[in-house]
């Protein structure tokens, strides 16, 4: 699959999860995707950036949503 297709899927996944993050005053920004390693990098913003639940939000919310949309992604880092 072309890298742009994967990037589009990641964007779709992030758009699905943004309303949940916005409820708590947060957001997420896509930073990069490495095709060779399958690692996507995102940046938590707003209240999510300093929240004690940020790691859980990343793994259980953001990473899960991205992997469902784009199985090419093996890991999501913040």
Automatic annotation (TrEMBL):
GO molecular function, one term: iron-sulfur cluster binding
The organism's place on the tree of life at top rank: Bacteria
Family annotation (Pfam families): NifU
Entry's Gene Ontology BP terms: iron-sulfur cluster assembly
Domain NIF system FeS cluster assembly NifU C-terminal positions: 10-76
Gene3D superfamilies listed in its UniProt record: Fe-S cluster assembly (FSCA)
PANTHER family recorded: IRON-SULFUR CLUSTER SCAFFOLD PROTEIN NFU-RELATED
Name of the molecule in the record: NIF system FeS cluster assembly NifU C-terminal domain-containing protein
Organism: Candidatus Falkowbacteria bacterium CG10_big_fil_rev_8_21_14_0_10_43_11
Top-level taxonomy: Bacteria, Candidatus Falkowiibacteriota
């Amino acid at each position: 699959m072309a890298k742009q297709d994967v990037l589009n899927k990641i964007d779709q996944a992030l758009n699905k999860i943004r309303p949940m993050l916005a409820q708590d005053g947060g957001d997420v920004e896509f930073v990069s995707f490495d095709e060779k390693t399958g690692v996507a990098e995102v940046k938590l913003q707003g209240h999510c950036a300093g929240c004690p639940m940020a790691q859980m939000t990343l793994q259980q919310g953001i990473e899960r949503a991205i992997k469902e949309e784009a199985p090419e992604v093996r890991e999501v880092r913040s």
